[in-house]
Amino acid sequence: MALRKCKSAVGLILIFSLMKLGLGDQFEPNQIHLALSRNPNELMVVWNTNGSIEGLVQWEKISDPQSRFQSVAISHAFVEHSSSKLQQYVHEAYMTDLDPAEAYKYRVGSKLVWSEWIECQPTAASNSTDWSPRLAVFGDLGLVNAQSIPRLLQDTKRGIYDAVLHVGDFAYDMYENSGRTGDLFMDMIAPIASRVPYMTCPGNHENKDNFFQYRNRFRMPSKNPKDLFYTFNLGPARFISLSTEVYYFVFNYGIVDIVAQWRWLDATLKAAMADRENHPWIIVFGHRPMYCSNLDHDDCKNHETLTRVGLPFFHWYGLEKLLYKYGVDLAIWAHEHSYERLWPVFDRKVYNGTTDPKDPYHNPQATVHVTSGSAGCRERTDLFENPEPWSAFRNSDYGYARLSPVNKTHLLWEQISDDQDGKVIDSIWIKKDKPEGFVETNEVLEVSSFE
């Protein structure tokens, strides 16, 4: 017993000495953010340190401070690819057996230094389908001109979101300044991302070195950590995250990722269709849209958008036919620094709901596409040219969206203008009477792949 006390005293003296020397600073947690895990009632928490140390997370119910739990992080070195070779360490830990109805607080760190306690409500970790998730949705958020951040943080502190979808393009760009731009960006979003799961997909601004910065900074619930696609459930909705970028950097990184993602998406959507009684809403999100009417030369202006119809000439591995075949209800995009909502559309044709001509989103017969990419970045916002027949609403204000699959028959989508002091500038209800796909799909489709 005396020896054990002596060892404890020596350990405390060593820790105190390291802190006095300032060596504890290199172990101070930063860039803290949450994500959903692949298991219900569980949240993943990720943070960085400048030095190598065993990472720990502690959490407890706010209503019961005696209920403290702890788990050890999985850690890996993250060495910047620039000539500076700056090195930091990424720690990934899991808070398990969470009660979604309880409020928690948690902290991350090590035996040397801890973060402040952070409060979170793990509603998004619920395995129940009988609740109404509320999400903030946006893309194209930079370190400079991040106009929407103050209002998003205010919303988050008010507890109106259960999760965030960041639909590609981060920091502009995370690799710049030897990765310090990425560090500053991650610290900028941490007050939001440390409170609610911050779910992501890669954009074109993450492509450098085969998405090296993105892969190291964001850990999503994919089966393989190297994959840029994954799925998760929230309430009555199945969410599917894709990389549209594999279609645009094929000459850099090859066709393997396109094929792997397409096969996975086909199987995942097939499983989602079979599970529609539990999760009737199927929502896909990725960075580059299939359709847009902006005043620029982006691929979404073309009749044969790569993500929509597939690889040039052969039309292999296109995504739109898969979305239509399996009745994807909502497709969320960014990339264009503006907001655009479409009528239900497939193959550039409008398929409004059949119940009431004045209610086009009641039992729509094709996927509803929305683009919300004006959260704020150094490239400012984009303008529009003459609208296409499938374009229903457009706006170039800075802002972001709110999404709520309210129940198994009603889904609410809203666009918020930050320029207009948080005004809701667009709002639609997507409604469907039965948990099924589109009526005509089996008659018109032959999905194309090389296989």
UniProtKB/TrEMBL annotation:
Pfam families for the chain: Metallophos (PF00149), Metallophos_C (PF14008), Pur_ac_phosph_N (PF16656)
Residue ranges of domain Purple acid phosphatase C-terminal in the record: 366-427
Catalytic activity: a phosphate monoester + H2O = an alcohol + phosphate
InterPro entries in the cross-refs: Calcineurin-like_PHP (IPR004843), Metallo-depent_PP-like (IPR029052), MPP_PAP (IPR041792), PAPs_C (IPR025733), PAPs_N (IPR015914), Purple_acid_Pase-like_N (IPR008963)
Signal peptide per UniProt: 1-24
Enzyme class label: hydrolase
Record GO terms (molecular function): acid phosphatase activity; metal ion binding
Domain Calcineurin-like phosphoesterase: 134-339
SUPFAM superfamilies noted in UniProt: Metallo-dependent phosphatases, Purple acid phosphatase, N-terminal domain
Domain of life: Eukaryota
The name this protein goes by in its record: Purple acid phosphatase
Organism annotation: Notodromas monacha
